[in-house]
């Protein structure tokens, strides 16, 4: 398959995605196509961030890696991040086999951790959302460094994937404003297994009022009943 | 990676009574060696009623009332949650059956695979119900000698 054919095929699949999970599933396939092992979408860290886990939106990296990474606050020692302060170009790295080097200068423990999880090389594509947020699309693996041609192709596919993903993310984060605070409150109690009468007692409302809030919420989220409303609210992370 | 199938493979119905077994015995045998829970969701109220093994699978305290979906949600792998919720949404709107395999937290650090099969059931005068079963995907011996459960939660 030529580069153009592969790019076209993957782009068609990305465009057909309906959910963020589907986008991530295709992105994992993209990583596989390029001989990479992991893909991560995360908010770009600021100089004040100490941990990577709260920034991650999606990732195939093992949770244990993030836990150990954050336990030692390695984000502060990452030699790649400072490069993004003055550039929007993708950044790549290669750990090397003999410990920290001039091209990847980091604490020995950080090198050991990344080696242990097979994260010997990687690349980060900085992405800008139309809502002005800055994000990273990161790939990790243990193959030889990416060639320029591969980097170009992966960059274009990643840009397309992020665009689709980010559109879904923005659509979902816009939803909470649709429901009023009271509707969200009633919805939350319903998800916790309370009946309208019980919710009314908790919130000092009549069950008719509770039902009215629920009916409004059902209409606003384009649902047909309370079960669908609860499921959709959980999926959209409206209920904490 | 979670899996979802929107329709069940409708196999020939096997009538247990044709070989002299009761439905009670089928349930007894199905839950003999693994956590095997039954549940029903009332679509109009959004309430999720479940048998004790569903609570045990989610490692939640067993209650007589509806299951707390907010608490259960926190036990489901975040990567699998969207597709699982979509299954409920589709079943509600399309009145169909579905089949999911997803991950539920085991203790604080681990995950276990769980299978959930549900189907829409009409109920006169209401929007209907979804009924289903949820069980641990991989068997584990449910005997005192091998059980890792807290005895007080049995």
Could you please describe the fold and organization of this structure?
- The complex is a heterodimer of chains A (240) and B (154).
- With 240 residues, chain A is an alpha+beta fold.
- Chain A has helices at residues 3-15, 20-33, 63-71, 108-116, 148-174, 181-191, 196-203, 207-220, 226-235, and strands at residues 38-43, 56-59, 91-94, 121-128, 134-141.
- Chain A has a 5-stranded antiparallel β-sheet with strand order 2-1-5-4-3, covered by helices on one side.
- Chain A is elongated and about 70 Å long.
- Chain B is an alpha+beta fold and 154 residues long.
- Chain B contains 4 helices and 6 strands.
- In chain B, strands 1-4-5-6-2-3 form a 6-stranded antiparallel β-sheet.
- In chain B, strand 4 and strand 5 form a beta hairpin.
- The chains are: A alpha+beta (240), B alpha+beta (154).
Question: How does the major sheet of chain B shape up?
Answer: 6 strands, antiparallel
- What structural class is derived from the secondary structure elements of chain A? alpha+beta
Mean pLDDT of chain A: 87
Could you tell me the number of beta strands of chain B? 6
Shape of chain A: elongated
Assembly state of the chains shown? heterodimer
Strand content of chain A: 5-15%
Radius of gyration of chain B: 16 Å
Average of the residue pLDDT scores of chain B:
83
The N- to C-terminal Cα distance of chain A equals 46 Å
**Greatest interface (CB-CB under 8 A), with counts per chain:** A-B, 29 and 31 residues
Enumerate the strands of the largest sheet of chain B in spatial order, edge to edge or round the barrel.
1-4-5-6-2-3
Percent of residues in helices of chain A comes to 40-55%
Number of H/I helices of chain B: 4
What fraction, in percent, of the residue positions of chain B are helical? 10-25%
Overall body shape of chain B: globular
Taking Cα atoms only, what radius of gyration of chain A do you get, to the nearest Å?
A: 22 Å
In the predicted model, the low-confidence regions of chain A spanning at least 5 consecutive residues are none
CA-to-CA gap between the ends of chain B? Answer: 30 Å
Low-confidence stretches of chain B: 144-154
User: How many beta-strand runs of chain A?
Assistant: 5
